[in-house]
């Protein structure tokens, strides 16, 4: 049976000899003690996030080129802790490890349902333990604006009061957002803020009605509203608490649009140390195509002028984007949007892969799952969440054009950290492995191995207070 390591390292070599027997404690406490007392070497050749970890009865040795590599070695160390009749142990082993992709993210939607700083920090901890290095915060949508800005405080103050189904809303102050960024950085994660535009902008109209077009009420909007109930159809100037998409849009001809975007995007860029600012660009179903292109071109140009790299959903590839703009693909693994996504690579950019039918964490596991949705080709079992490889999503896309992977968690039905844990775990392990480990089909990079290894983390997750889903396709122990 393979060691319960998620994501699976580049190479794992058992070493002859007795195990290491540490003093009792939680797995995290044991790993922290061992890491603190470990022999540490800073050596060239491990890369910005790679490491070598050697465990023997005599102790622990960690080699890395950076603090990030040493941090990831400690995460592996925690997963190596086992228990037997004599107490905790770590098997004698030598691990060499380097990530496959440089970007490995999780997205938390705090617009549909607002989540407090403590929950965001908990998500960061959970993601960092699996060697994810980016937190994409979906800060704005039809249901709310969640970041206070000095340039436009009215956005948060007038458009954050509610969430889906009329649940309580909220927003992050500038100080709270800075704290989130700092908390993430201490765990070697960047924060990627998203101001979704030109669609998904109903909340903007609560404080700036002059910038917003009237809602476009299609048959689809009516159908979704009737299907899920509550909230009613969107009305200009009224907070939106239902979950339909595609009805809202900024106005390309609004006289104040460019200065507004320059002030808002400029401030978001200024308070975010990371390299990316996400400007959305998805599901602008009620926006004239020419207007869509014009607004996306304006927004990405503004972001590029701040020195950040623009990041957009894949629909934005129809626009003339600044060279190097990153595209995020949310279509299905065999979807008809692949050509749009490939256009980012043709324009000198790269792609983050988030195929909805594999990696969207808000999908139900099965029909009985109490929360979640099913629009991404039905429920997503743990097996289906694992059964894909980034290199196979966009046909003929060279691997260097893939920046990495990201697992989005939309929160139409997600109200609490317990809800987040239920939908994230164990499927976040599939995303972590897709982003870090060797390609699918390599040694131990199989579903049969993964299901055994993920089962081996059950006690560790329980110890950490993570209420994971005990999926039927995993042999939990």
From TrEMBL:
Keywords: Glycosidase, Hydrolase. One of its GO terms (cellular component) is membrane. Residues 44-97 form the Beta-hexosaminidase bacterial type N-terminal domain. The lineage of its organism: Bacteria, Bacillati, Actinomycetota, Actinomycetes, Micrococcales. PANTHER family: BETA-HEXOSAMINIDASE (PTHR22600), BETA-N-ACETYLHEXOSAMINIDASE (PTHR22600:SF57). Residues 101-284, 296-438 form the Glycoside hydrolase family 20 catalytic domain. Its EC number is 3.2.1.52. This is beta-N-acetylhexosaminidase. InterPro entries: Beta_hexosaminidase_sua/sub (IPR025705), GH (IPR017853), Glyco_hydro_20_cat (IPR015883), Hex-like_dom2 (IPR029018), HEX_bac_N (IPR015882).
């Amino acid at each position: 049976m393979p060691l319960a390591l998620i994501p699976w390292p580049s190479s794992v070599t058992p070493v002859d000899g007795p195990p290491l027997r540490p003093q009792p404690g939680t797995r995290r406490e044991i790993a922290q003690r061992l890491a603190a007392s470990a022999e540490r070497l800073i050596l060239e050749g491990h890369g910005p996030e790679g490491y070598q970890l050697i465990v023997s009865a005599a102790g622990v040795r960690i080699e890395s080129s950076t603090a990030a590599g040493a941090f990831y070695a400690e995460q592996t160390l925690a997963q190596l802790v086992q228990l037997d009749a004599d107490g905790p142990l770590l098997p004698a082993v030598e691990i060499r490890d380097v990530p496959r992709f440089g970007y490995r993210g999780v997205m938390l939607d705090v617009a549909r349902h607002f989540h407090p700083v403590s929950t965001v920090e908990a998500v960061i901890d959970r993601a960092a333990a699996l060697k994810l290095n980016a937190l994409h915060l979906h800060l704005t949508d039809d249901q709310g604006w969640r970041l206070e800005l000095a340039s436009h405080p009215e956005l948060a103050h007038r458009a954050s009061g509610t969430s889906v189904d009329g649940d309580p809303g909220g927003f992050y102050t500038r100080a709270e957002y800075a704290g989130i960024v700092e908390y993430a950085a201490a765990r070697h994660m960047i924060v990627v803020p998203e101001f979704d535009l030109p669609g998904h902008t109903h909340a903007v109209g609560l404080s700036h009605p002059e910038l917003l077009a009237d809602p476009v009420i299609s048959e689809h909007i009516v159908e979704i509203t009737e299907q899920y109930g509550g909230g009613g159809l969107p009305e200009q100037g009224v907070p939106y608490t239902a979950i339909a998409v595609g009805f809202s849009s900024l106005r390309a001809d609004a006289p104040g649009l460019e200065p507004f975007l320059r002030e808002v995007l400029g401030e978001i860029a200024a308070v975010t140390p990371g390299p990316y600012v996400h400007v959305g660009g998805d599901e602008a179903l009620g926006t004239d195509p020419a207007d869509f292109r014009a607004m996306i071109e304006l927004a990405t140009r503004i972001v590029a002028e701040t020195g950040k790299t623009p990041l957009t959903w894949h629909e934005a590839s129809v626009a003339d984007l600044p060279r190097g703009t990153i595209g995020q693909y949310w279509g299905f693994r065999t979807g008809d949007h692949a050509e749009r996504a490939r256009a980012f690579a043709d324009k000198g950019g790269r792609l983050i892969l988030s195929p909805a039918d594999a990696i969207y964490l808000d999908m139900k596991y099965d029909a009985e799952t109490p929360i979640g949705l099913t629009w991404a080709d039905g429920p997503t079992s743990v097996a289906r969440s694992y059964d894909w490889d980034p290199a196979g999503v966009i046909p003929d896309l060279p691997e260097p054009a893939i920046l990495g992977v990201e697992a989005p968690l939309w929160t139409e039905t997600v109200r609490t950290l317990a809800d987040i844990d239920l939908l994230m775990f164990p499927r976040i392990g599939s995303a972590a492995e897709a982003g870090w480990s060797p390609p699918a089909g390599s040694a131990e990079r199989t579903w049969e191995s993964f299901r055994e290894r993920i089962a081996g983390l059950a006690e560790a997750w329980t110890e950490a207070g993570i209420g994971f889903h005990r999926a039927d396709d995993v042999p939990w122990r």
